[in-house]
Predict the structure of tRNA uridine(34) hydroxylase.
Amino acid sequence: MGISKVVLFYVFRPLPDPEAIRVWQLALCESLDLRGRIIVSPHGINVTVGGELSQLRRYVRATKGYAGFADADIKWSAGSAEDFPRLSVRVRPEIVTFGVPGEVAVDENGVVDGGIRLSPHELHALIDSRADVVMFDGRNEIEGRIGHFDNAVITPARSTRDFVTLLDRGDYDHLKDKPVVTYCTGGVRCEVLTALMRRRGFEEVYQLDGGIVRYGETFGDDGHWRGSMFVFDKRMSLTFSDNPETVGECSRCGAPTDAVADIVDDRGRQLDVVCPKCQGSLEHRKGPEYRKGPECHGALEFQPVPEYQPAREIQQAPCDRETSGGRVR
């Protein structure tokens, strides 16, 4: 068996026929024996899939052959198809479920009126030059508990939808006149979050380009990042060096840990930070079969892995004459 990897990317680009993209992507991934999750919407596409490296390279070449996706920023991480229970390719109103698809405008350049992009080096320059920079975690609270930037604002959000509620009720109005840098795993959530924040009066909003993934590739654990990066699949978390700092605390005993598990106890089924020792004393189930993704409220579902039916040929992209010449962010 060859080397395996996980590839992730997103593209905000108007798609006139999301269903055609879904059918093509499903057939393409099946032909290459890839597993993972792909969300397609009128706003674009969001992809996390794993498989053998040679097959992933074929997937990336085929996908970037579609003009609308030609400039997609591809990110690679450790993992394999086995980190995902199945292949899921779905059409949804949004590629990130904030619950306000009507507020999100997308054109050939990406999300309209989003935050200013900062590379990892540009982020350091901003922090060095401004004492009032606020790092704002655009992920769910459970993710921030095991890893975050120095002095970051970590919201109590249990789902991406919760950010709209938190912003609308004014919980972070005191930050509206400060330089706010949002960050998330790969950058996709911040594309939308920064636009929503600007619409609600935040004056100086930035987004970490490429997210934590790109920052970790650049600085490892020698910058402003602390802890582990949570991922919504069997891997549960990733680190950027051999000696990462442990910032999480077990919710049961308080011991330092970056372990996250699907717990079934008297509080119901939920994702929680629980050390291995305490996991052993609880009735719990672990594994991506129970996980919907970063937009879930910890409400988990079980579906058996379907039998794989490989296709014979690499599937071609649907006609992209309406998207040629566009730029992807």
Remarks:
- The longest helix spans residues 18-31.
- The helical segments are 18-31, 53-64, 120-129, 141-144, 162-168, 188-199, 211-219, 276-279.
- The longest strand covers residues 4-12.
- Residues 284-314, 321-329 have pLDDT under 50 and may be disordered.
